[in-house]
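Researcher: Quick test of sequence recovery. Tokens follow.
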């Protein structure tokens, strides 16, 4: 249980550690000072004296995964008893499970004794696998209205983004120029571009207004004669805000600058037409649309040349070497096809559900704020600020009763950090706890009923236990 330590452990230490261990086994979160006091008689000041970092040491030694730093610890967790525990997953912008149709397809594939064949070989079995790969290219291409040869499968969304940005930049290594992006991009974009600074590339970061959108005018203003790439996301992962990609594409096309679009959140949720919209590169990922993890794809317009990141064989038209992740590719192809087929109906259903979610939240928290535009937004996303609530505490309290959501600021080992997206909106994060709800295929009204059966008591409990 306890980790190696230089502290000499007394009976009091063991009493606290054993209680914390039992409590964690039962509640899946660590006990609070007041629980420990009540059950072991060890007072807070005693605990803080005998453990080097108080409660954090207790959690650390027991192995309780509460993430807290010395300066800004996550606040307490509400003590709520549920009558009928259930799992409610409301974090679909973070990741999604494999949907049944994809799982069944992959299972059938695995059941075929020859499915291990290498698609680059010339055997009959290999040709069959090759046809499945072709089919997956066609599936993705069909969703985007592009040519199947313009799709390159990658090892996930981040790799697709890296391939796009570095692939274009590395063509200009002899005369590194200027890149335009926005302050609210995913770290896969921001960090890739930051890395390129070491090669001499310079970057302009376009800001967003309180609605969280990048405007085409802002892009136009940021362009310079030496701009070599613009990279703007289609929809934001935290606030779900949809950027006017069509207008941004028109600006880029007129300027003759390639536009790379991170569509990891948007693909399968809103229509995307790279060819009509002036997009040269567009990245997607399997695990955001009920496909497998570690698989993604990049649309590369035929006229867009790219330096590959992975050199080797001729797979994926020479743009990404290596024997293909066939399971991932088949899974992504299937997931994309289904998402595309259901897009209109599912987003209308999710929109109704989100409206209900917001209305019910506003009933219990009239002073809440919605982060980012409500009109230009993915139907499945709601990101709110709750006054006077610590989002880390709320997250853990909800997790304790089986509900998964995300926070806009995360208490973790390095400290309590506020998301760069929320900061870019100008939200007062000292005043508001940020929570992201991500609805999905299996979310129903009864999930929301479960949430709202306990949320008011959790919020009251958290406000009362502030110290
Ligand atoms: N871009 C956005 C907008 C994302 O939300 C994510 C994943 O969270 C990524 C890129 C990275 O995708 P992957 O996890 O497939 O590498």
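Model:
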């Amino acid at each position: 249980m306890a980790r190696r330590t230089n502290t000499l452990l007394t009976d009091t230490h063991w009493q606290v550690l054993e209680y914390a261990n039992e409590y964690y086994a039962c509640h899946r979160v660590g006990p609070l000072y007041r629980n420990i006091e009540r059950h072991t008689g060890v007072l807070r000041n005693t605990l803080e004296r005998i453990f080097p970092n108080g409660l954090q040491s207790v959690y650390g030694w027991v192995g309780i995964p509460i993430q807290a730093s010395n300066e800004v610890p996550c606040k307490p967790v509400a003590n709520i008893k549920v009558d009928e525990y259930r799992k409610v997953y409301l974090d679909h912008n973070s990741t999604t499970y494999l949907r049944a149709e994809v799982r069944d397809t992959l299972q059938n594939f695995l059941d075929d004794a020859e499915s291990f064949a290498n698609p680059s070989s010339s055997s009959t079995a290999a040709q069959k696998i090759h046809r499945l790969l072709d089919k997956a290219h066609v599936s993705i291409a069909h969703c985007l209205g592009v040519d199947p040869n313009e799709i390159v499968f990658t090892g996930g969304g981040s790799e697709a983004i890296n391939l796009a940005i570095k692939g274009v930049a590395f063509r200009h290594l002899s005369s590194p120029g200027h890149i335009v992006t926005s302050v609210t991009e995913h770290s896969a974009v921001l960090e890739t571009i930051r890395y390129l600074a070491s090669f001499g590339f310079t970057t302009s970061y376009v800001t967003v207004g309180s609605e969280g959108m990048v405007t085409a005018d802002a892009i136009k203003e940021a362009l310079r004669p030496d701009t070599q790439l613009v990279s703007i996301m289609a929809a934001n992962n935290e606030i779900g805000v949809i950027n006017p990609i069509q207008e941004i594409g028109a600006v880029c096309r007129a300027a003759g600058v390639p536009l790379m679009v991170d569509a990891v959140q948007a693909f399968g949720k809103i229509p995307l037409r790279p060819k009509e919209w002036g997009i040269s590169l567009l990245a997607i990922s399997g695990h955001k649309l009920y496909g497998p993890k570690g698989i993604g794809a990049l649309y590369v317009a035929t006229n867009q040349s790219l330096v590959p990141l992975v050199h080797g064989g001729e797979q994926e038209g020479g743009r990404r070497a290596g024997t293909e992740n066939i399971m991932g590719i088949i899974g992504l192809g299937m997931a994309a096809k289904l998402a595309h087929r259901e897009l209109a109906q599912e987003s209308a259903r999710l929109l109704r559900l989100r409206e209900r979610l917001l209305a019910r939240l506003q009933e219990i928290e009239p002073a809440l704020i919605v982060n980012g535009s409500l009109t230009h937004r993915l139907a499945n996303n709601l990101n709110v600020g709750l006054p006077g609530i610590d989002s880390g505490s709320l997250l853990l309290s909800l997790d304790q009763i089986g509900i998964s959501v995300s926070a806009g600021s995360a208490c973790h080992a390095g400290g309590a950090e506020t998301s760069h997206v929320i900061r870019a909106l100008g939200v007062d994060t000292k005043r508001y706890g940020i929570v992201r709800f991500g609805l999905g295929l299996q979310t129903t009204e009864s999930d929301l009923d479960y949430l709202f059966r306990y949320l008011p008591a959790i919020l009251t409990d958290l406000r009362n236990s502030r110290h």
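The longest helix spans residues 326-364.
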